[in-house]
Task: structure prediction
Amino acid sequence: MLITGQMVRKYRAEGYFTVEGLFTPDEVDGVRREISKIVEDHPPKEDGLVQLEPTVTKGNDTTASTELGVRKLAKMAVRNDFFRNLAFHSGMLEIATRLLGPDVYLFQSMSLLKPPQIGGAKMWHQDNAYFRQTPSDVFGFWVACDDTTMENGCMHVIPGSHTGGIDEHGMVDDDYVLLNPPSTENAVPIPLLAGDALVFHGEIYHHTPPNRTDKRRRAIQYHYSSAKCQRNNDETPYIIEPEFLVAGKP
Ligand SMILES: O=C(O)CCC(=O)C(=O)O
Result:
């Protein structure tokens, strides 16, 4: 068993916990290799599978290779067999069914690659502001595929911020973010080693600072939701549907 009672209690009270070595070194290598293959096979497009750092798209930054300019792979589990199979990872499903019950969807898959030197910040936000799922039985795994530090853009959370509902979000610099961001004094950085994971509630405040180091900061993010969840309103510019069922029934 990976998930302990203590982890569940921390999740309910503070909205997050971490798991050491959720992915083995071989699994991390497999993810890194598959990311490179996808970038090789798919030309970057603004809203496509492979998306560049905006400063690269605008021509303000250039990088030694295409891959080193990629910010995101979007919905890679519906577009790629390796990442589809990974959605059924035994450790992730054990934790997902413990937190959400037996009927679970992969809600959203993403790779977040925050490239060395040019990787921009992701400002404070709550993921369920994008998803608008009710009840809010949705959470993410953020699996580090490099060692992540404060300097190269590790995750930061505000413990307990998942309990107050969804606060007002709006577009700032082309990103949908909290209009009243929290004081950073209360932020907890979550440095991780490659293979470790942050498990975080869909309504916890979180952000990542820029990567101004020479080190890569690759991560994959898989969100899971209970089959009971429904989209509750249109107060978001995004319409995001669950990707596919991974456990139980619809
Ligand atoms: O990995 C990152 O830099 C940010 C991830 C994140 O917060 C998100 O995509 O919601």
